[in-house]
Design brief:
- The structure is a single chain.
- α7 packs antiparallel against α8, α8 packs antiparallel against α9 and α9 crosses α11.
- This protein has 369 residues and is an alpha+beta fold.
- It is globular and about 80 Å long.
- The strands form three sheets. A four-stranded antiparallel β-sheet has the order 2-3-7-6, with no helix packed on it.
- 50% of the residues are buried.
- It contains eleven helices and nine strands.
- It folds into three domains: 108 residues, Butyryl-Coa Dehydrogenase, subunit A, domain 1 (Orthogonal Bundle), CATH 1.10.540.10; 97 residues, Butyryl-CoA Dehydrogenase, subunit A, domain 2; 152 residues, Butyryl-CoA Dehydrogenase, subunit A, domain 3, CATH 1.20.140.10.
- The protein binds flavin-adenine dinucleotide (FAD).
- The site of flavin-adenine dinucleotide (FAD) has 21 residues, from β1, β3 and α11.
């Protein structure tokens, strides 16, 4: 990691300290923690300095995301939502929206992004949320599910039908007609503030629509999801690093049959595979980040690939970590038990394993044609 991130990592370390397990069990992060990181610009560190951000390169932002992910996947999930909201504003907002909203998102206000609906999961073309003009206002009606960080958010970036196409609208969480209901007992990332959110005749100024006009739904989704996938991918590298450290330390110190676990060859194989999983995930993420930093058209597909490799490796690596720790890691409150639950969810979100595989297969065929 470049030296320039030493101070930022130290801030995360001091805020998370040994609280991640407590937050996980309580299902809540004290909101002051994301607010402090947000006020330092660190929840969306890629925002350019011209808009009040830190202007991190994608590689720097990725390494920082991995560091947060190695400490607490719930906090990293909050960061992913904020980064996705900021990226969507940066790409789709007009000049005024970029200036005002990015200033908010880099100074402690928190955001969540809503695509998924009860009948629109992997196939978001089934989305029903409606954003319609009424005079000089727009009215939002709909139901979003599983919005990460919505329990903490001040602003909700909502994707819905608009003007025969689609749009992203920025809704204050406090607006009349918005109801946020926390998802009970998620399998993992338990403190990430997932919520189902309903919007009932929520009236907003027309200037709340990013860019002011309808866009194509695929364009909107590709834009927002690209950042989400990038962030989840690097977050999974963090999960793998935490698992590798815990597993290697345990295997070096615990003795069975008169020798350290690590010297039992079948346990050594778990360690080797965990190292390979961490390294290959990091390489895929670094490659995707180079595409972001160069503005390469391959950025979207390389990010899908990085997300797929990292999520799959993290789920497999966390399972190996629990296997090696055995009873020592088989309880809530242990870093590898938390990683095991958190990593599984990374294979579902921002394009499940299967959806990523479909996109990668499509790319392979298009390139062969
Ligand atoms: P379904 O779409 O019903 O899929 C079920 C299974 O079928 C999956 O394995 C899927 O891969 C497979 N499948 C579906 N279609 C196909 C196909 N065509 N080919 C092959 N396999 C297929 N949503 C948001 O909008 N914002 C958020 O911040 C957010 N955060 C989330 C956080 C967590 C922890 C979780 C669990 C979900 C979150 N979601 C969020 C929702 C998430 O995006 C959806 O869960 C995801 O898109 C999958 O949709 P689904 O759960 O409805 O599963």
């Amino acid at each position: 990691m470049p030296d320039r991130l030493g101070g930022e990592r130290a801030l995360v370390d001091s805020l998370v300290a040994d609280h991640a397990e407590v937050w996980d069990l309580a299902g809540r992060i004290p909101v002051e923690v994301p607010r402090e990181l947000g006020a330092a610009g660190l929840l969306c560190a890629q925002v350019p300095a011209a808009f009040g951000g830190l202007g991190f390169t994608s590689a720097e932002n990725g390494e920082f995301t991995a560091h947060v992910g190695s400490r607490c996947s719930s906090l990293r999930s909050v960061m992913t939502s904020q980064g996705m909201a900021a990226w969507t504003v940066q790409r789709l907002g007009d000049r005024h929206q970029r200036e005002s909203l990015l200033a908010e998102l880099t100074s402690g206000r928190l955001a969540a992004v809503g695509f998924s609906e009860p009948d629109a999961g992997s196939d978001l073309s089934g989305m029903r949320t409606e954003i319609r003009r009424e005079g000089d206002t727009v009215v939002v009606d709909g139901h979003k599910v599983w919005m990460t960080a919505a329990c903490y958010a001040d602003l909700l970036v909502v994707i819905g039908r608009f003007d025969g196409g689609a749009a992203a609208v920025v809704v204050p969480a406090s607006a009349p007609g918005v109801q946020v209901s926390k998802v009970a007992d998620p399998l993992g990332c338990r403190a990430a503030g997932h919520a189902d959110v309903t919007f009932e005749r929520v009236r907003l100024p027309v200037s709340s629509v990013l860019g002011g006009v309808g866009q194509s739904l695929p364009l909107l989704l590709t834009t927002a999801l690209a950042y989400g996938r990038f962030s989840v991918a690097w977050g999974c590298v963090g999960i793998l690093r935490a698992c590798l450290a815990a597993t290697a330390t345990h295997a070096a110190h615990r003795t069975q049959s008169g020798i350290p676990l690590a010297r039992h060859q079948l346990v050594g194989r778990h360690l080797a595979e965990l190292l390979v999983d961490e390294r290959t995930a990091a390489l895929a993420c670094e490659r995707a980040s180079r595409c972001w930093d160069r503005g390469s058209p391959d950025m979207v597909i390389e990010t899908v690939l990085a997300k797929h490799v990292s999520a799959r490796n993290a789920a497999r690596g966390a399972a190996s970590a629990v296997q090696v720790l055995a009873s020592a890691g088989a309880q809530d409150g242990h870093v590898v038990a938390r990683a095991y639950r958190d990593a599984k969810l990374m294979e579902i979100i921002e394009g499940s394993n299967e959806i990523c595989q479909l996109l990668l297969a499509e790319h392979a065929v298009a390139n062969a044609a």
